[in-house]
Design a protein that fits this description.
heterodimer, A: Rossmann fold, 14 helices, 8 strands, B: about 180 residues, mainly alpha, 434 Repressor (Amino-terminal Domain), 8 helices, binds adenosine-5'-diphosphate, binds magnesium ion
Amino acid sequence: MTQTEKLGKEGEIWAVGGGKGGTGKTFITSSIGTYLAQKGRRVILVDMDIGGANLHSFFGIDRPARSLTSFFETGAALSDLAVRTEIESMSLITGDIHSLSAENIKFSQKLKLFRQIMKLNAQNVIIDLGAGSHGNTLDTFLIADRMIIVIAPEIIAIENMYHFVKAALFRQVKKSLKEYGLKEIVQHVWDRRERYGVKNVKDLIDYLKDAYPYFGAILDRELGHFRLHLVLNMVRSGQDIQLGAAIKSVLMKYLGVPVHFSGYVMYDDTVWRSVRDRKPFMRNYLSTGTAKEIETLVENIVLARDVTVPGGMS
Amino acid sequence: MTRTDLRKSYEILELPDSASLREVQNAYLRLRKLYAGSSVALAPLEEEFSENTRRKILQQVEDAYDKLRSALNGERTNAKAGGAGERGDTVPELDRLEEIVYSGPVLRKIRERVNLNENAVFQELKIRTELLRALEEERFEVLPQVVYLKGHLQSIARLLGLQPDRVVEDYLRRYRDWKDDRGKE
Ligand SMILES: Nc1ncnc2c1ncn2[C@@H]1O[C@H](COP(=O)(O)OP(=O)(O)O)[C@@H](O)[C@H]1O
Ligand SMILES: [Mg+2]
């Protein structure tokens, strides 16, 4: 196996979400992509922050020649919309859409988009999601092979992230059972959750498994791919990093979802400076601690591994 | 104990199967602190998940720790031929968490259970050994004034991953009872 092959299969889709805006999703997306491309992988970044697309500006691209707008408005093929970046072997599909917001993409367009994303000719397709927990955002998150969550160590970001994860999990449960014609049952139980003693999505899953034993096998299999890779950004202290470990634990124990705490990135002034100067961070600040942190978190995501949390009680 | 049992216990403590006794202890302390205290990581979910969920998690953490500790202690004793006395001693059982009254002896049990000796407490908290002993043995007459005592109890609670408020409340109630009794004499 070559170094490049070690970084994952062909055509892996990674999605970066997490609920709240401003936690660094776009920065992390751009840095992950740059790192993988620098390691020789063919990478395509897709900006799915519909309405707030700005991934291109992280690469100094002002006005992209092509964008997702043409996909929605003129039916252009997705693969024709990729523009080159200054990083070799990495291109970008910008989401510079003025005419749309996440809510008003049609269902058929969404399916077509997903089909074309899966067919993109790249070793890694990395999708930058917008803020919020809208259905279209969640569905995009759920098609990914690697589901990456970016948060910052502050209460609103954590709150929004839990909301995002619960909504994604609920959607996945519905989606899983829908394929077996059982979608209505999920909504039925949820709508009458008080009667069924169901308070949250974890209870819902437990209830369904309990009440309908053959659901158990289906859900186990279908939820098997629901695995989160948590990235804590804008860290300022060791205590923040401990918080990352605590969040991982809470997600696993309260929601029953497998989670890896893949890595953390310190708050670093050169990050926003490089964004301001429209320079790809990983190219210009390769020797910084932050670049090292990105490297660690990408390797951990690839290997589905956890970062070492420093300063655990000795 | 079966292999599956062991694996499950490691899983609850969020550790790989290869974790050492030390790592098991650290994970236990960390999780106990998280689920017995208040954390930003928990606050947003508290409304939706009942207190019962939290208690169940704490109990699972306790049970997992018990199992792994005895399994790993056993392993260590076996590894050293005839290693008698090598941590083979059992610590007195603690009652279910929610029923505990944090008296001095209970605080000592918990401290011993997580393998923190008197010297470690001194290193971490600068609480002198004589004072710690008096506190744990409830020799109230030699303890400092309540304001200071409260501070010590809070830092001991934090070190042990306990809820400081509860520890202070329980301990000071016992202290006051003693004081009242003495007043009557
Ligand atoms: N680790 C960091 N240290 C300092 N600034 C950061 C860091 N990560 C992101 N930023 C800055 O925070 C702002 C928001 O980041 P962005 O990636 O656009 O967030 P999102 O996509 O989640 O809305 C940007 O100005 C970015 O440069
Ligand atoms: Mg963004």
